[in-house]
Structure formats: structure tokens, C-alpha cells
Amino acid sequence: MPEGGDMLEKRTDSPDQSVEEIFRTYGNMLYRIAFVMMKNAFDAEDVVQDTLIKYMEQRERGKSFETEEHRKAWLIRVDSNLCKNRLRFYKNHPKISVEQLSRYYEKEEDTQLMDSLLLLPSKYREVLLLHYVEGYQGREIAGMLGLSESAVRKRLERGREKLRGLLQETG
């Protein structure tokens, strides 16, 4: 028996354990967990990558794991939490494709307007959509976005200017 304690409690963060080795050892397991939770291969791959980035950050901070089981449990927990965070984000920020949006606009001018609107930076696009498409007032938009009313008015003004410029460029 080695000096200094139990073999099961040996430290596992030797400098020779690279991220590549961690990926070879745990990558398939992390991918399977992420795939089951995300139901999407692309998102599962992103989550595994983010998990490994978190692992590298953990090591850079000088943190180490007491045992190999501790490392495995940590990786599983981080992988699972990143999946939950991503799913929560998708729930709170539903995606609508451009094709879905364009179905609602039958006139060519409306389609051109929507295409130009989608080219704007999100901070302008957001307030313009809420105001003109959804019919919210500046006060209501300010409450939804956590902005002051004057910031909403300024974004509407700048957004209209940028949209006008884009529409003039395209035709």
C-alpha cells in the first residue's frame, strides 16, 4: 500500500491529463446525456464543447478534483446544467424562421420591409416590432425590456432612421 493514504483517494489532476484525454474518456457519455436532454445533435455537441471549456476554466483557476469519480460527477453536473440553461433560454426566446414570418406578408412591399427589419441590430428591431407590429406603447415596451421610456423613444427613432436607410438602399 502506498504511503500517505488510500489508493482510491489519489489525486487525479496530474499535469499530463489533457482536455483531449478527458474528452476521450468522458466525451461519449457527456454527448449521450446532452443528446437525450436537448433532442438535437447540434445542441448536444455545443453543450459538450461548453462543458469542456468550463473544465479548462476550472483547471486554470487551480481547482482540482479529489478523485476520478469527483471529476466525472462534476462533468455530468456541468453538462446537465448547461442543457437546462439552454432549454430555458429556448423556452424564453422562441425561434421564428424567416419563412414563417414571410408567410404572413403577401405584398412584396411587406416582405421587403420585413427583410430589411430583420437586418437591423436586435436592439432596434425589438422595439420596432413591439411598437409597430404588436402595437405596444413606449411605456409598455420600456417595462417589458427594462428600459426608460426615453431610451425606447430614442431606439424607435434610430431604428426608423436605419430602416429608412436600408429600404432606400434596396429599392
- Give the end-to-end Cα distance, rounded to a whole number of Å: 81 Å
User: Low-confidence parts lasting 5 or more residues at pLDDT below 50?
Assistant: 1-13
Largest sheet: none
Query: Helix share of residues?
Result: over 70%
Order of helices and strands: HHHHHHHH
What's the number of helices? 8
Q: What structural category characterises the helix and strand content?
A: mainly alpha
Strand content: under 5%
* Rounded average pLDDT: 81
Estimated radius of gyration:
25 Å
Number of strands: 0
Shape: elongated
Give the topology, please:
Layout: H1 19-38, H2 41-60, H3 68-92, H4 98-103, H5 108-119, H6 122-133, H7 138-145, H8 149-170
Q: Can you describe this structure?
A:
This protein is an all-alpha fold and 171 residues long. It has helices spanning 19-38, 41-60, 68-92, 98-103, 108-119, 122-133, 138-145, 149-170. It is elongated. It starts with 18 loop residues before the first helix and ends with a helix.
